[in-house]
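Notes, p. 3: input format for complexes.
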Amino acid sequence: MTKKRETWKSHWGMIAAMIGTAIGLGNIWRFPYLCGKYGGATFLIPYVILLLGVAMFAMMCEWVLGRHTKRDPLGAFDKIKFPFGRDIGAWGIVGPFFLYSYYIVVTSWVIFFIFASLEGLYFGKDTGWYFASFLGSKWVFLVHIAAVAITSSILAMGVQKGIERACKIMIPTLFVLLVIVAIRSVTLPGAREGIEFYMRPRWEGLLRPEIWMAALGQVFFTLSLGMGAMLIYGSYMKDEWGIPMNALSVTMGNTSASILAGFAIFPAAFALGFGNVIGGAESIGLTFIVLPKVFEVMPGGHLFGGLFFILLTFGAISSAISIQEPAIAWLADEVGWPRKKGAFFTGAVLWLMGLPFIFNGFVAGGLGMKLALLSKMDVIIGQLAIPVFGMLAIIAVGYFMGNRGFDEMNKNARIKLSHTPLKFWVRAIVPIFMAILFVLTLLKATGVIHEGEGVGFTPVGITPITIFAMAFICILFWGGFIYATARVLIIEKDKHRRRKLGLHHSR
Ligand code: TRP
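Output follows (507 residues plus tryptophan):
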């Protein structure tokens, strides 16, 4: 194609879009659910290690593939001459259809719950029953159409006017609303127990492999890896933006939202008497069953419930657009379709692909059965497909791009990662870590190792270690986010200006 490829318009817009794809249901539903199941702070430790040590590097590799080739996933793997590049890259186009097909269904439930909360529709009812009956109603069908239409329309408007502009509005709003809801939650009388649950690690849990496996799946899911999304978003990155610091900023920004979501959910759940549900079987229904109960008894619950589901909608929509984008980019790059046509065509296909999950809710009885198809899909995609494709991007950069890949990673970066340790890390450490966890997953799938109970919890009151852990985590993530973002936005910009003016001679 001779047409110049679109790029992000501004640096801040790029960060908003990247954080927009990353923050979504994964942060606000999946992260607290896993954290609850695996003992709060006990889960945070493997999560942070794998996030910074493995997933952040995987993200940089996807960006490198995208920016270096300036192509969609299929074209990118082909261009670097990866064996069977076109077939493997095709996963980056097709895979997201499967992820989107159910992700958007959950998104549409969230949209419905904005109204359900503001109107108090579930107040005074058994929320499990309410949710199940919602899944069998015509509303599911209608909100699903609306959700698909929203993402398709944003995407039809293009990279700068659609994706970037939408994220620049939605992401800051999301953070403000999340802070409001978190403050409400931690100031409820009796919130301490929840804070303590969330922040006090139970070290013995760290020896359990399934916690590490769950954390690996989660770090890939939360950074939107293994689906071509980050690769495509990387292909719209300008060459003058350094990759490592931007990766740190996006990783920290994404995780600060997850941590905040925990503060929004656990203290309130414990304060209002639902602590026993956290970590139990029902905790997977946290968002649509437990939280509505919490909003029902919380002072100002209509409003806070409404705000919570609005922010979750913003997170989910800004992620869903990144899942739909690779196919549109492919249709534009390789087939030559205009963006609008691609957006509405993919929208129609994706709508059809979501219908089985909706019909599952219509015909099956009982909440578990109504969700059966969707949760199976989530396991296949989340625990298998995403890490596998994520690993391929790492191998592509580590072994097939040679120095080109590592040079691209450091191109124009102010803080360069030194080549030898970086190579060693990307080529050896990251794949080894992932391979071990894959093997464990296989052993679990074949029944050789068994999943234990959730990690137990006995409240002992707030201890100094809890307070220390809380302060440390907040400083690490919010401080890291603010530092890294300020650094890339202010310092690097200044550097480029000076370089343009010929004032900078350091290299
Ligand atoms: N990261 C998003 C979340 O946490 C989900 C998501 C968006 C995603 N795009 C993706 C996950 C691509 C995997 C791959 O909700």
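Residues 21-22, 24-27, 99, 221-222, 224-227, 229, 319, 322-323, 386 surround tryptophan (CB under 6 Å).
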